[in-house]
Amino acid sequence: MIRLDDLIADLCELPARFIGKKKRKEFQELAFLVRIDCEGCERRVKNALEGMKGVSSVEVDPKENKVTVSGRVEAPEVVKRLRRRAGKKAEPWPFVPYEVVPHPYAPGAYDKKAPPGYVRNVLDDPDKAPLVRASSMEERYTTAFSDDNPNSCAVM
Fold this sequence. Notes:
The chain is about 35% helix and about 20% strand. By secondary structure, the chain is α+β, with helices and mostly antiparallel strands. The longest helix has 12 residues, at about 40-50. It is flat. Keywords: Metal-binding. This is HMA domain-containing protein.
């Protein structure tokens, strides 16, 4: 017969994954692009996400069509919840401030639908990144005529 003391000792030696302990998700802030047409859409999106387990705050910006979720949640869970509860298609926030991109008005970076002051995040896209990044030759020519360069050409 197995003694109770031996059984408890064996259970204590098992790793946490066999006992059923779950690893906590890390706290993060996620941003999504969601089309918001009216106050009703804004309310539906906010109510759908506030009732979600692990969400601590939801911010909806209807002018930028941006939804920011803070909490211990994962992005696919939020997208699925918005699709099911609010009937809205959501995608990760694709824009960055235009100061981050060296050539913000290059093809592929500039987007007419982007909020003011933002352009598409093309630095991570291998197809469009060469169009946006400045080459060393371009850098030399632009700094040669720059007002910030004290040794610049005074022809202009």
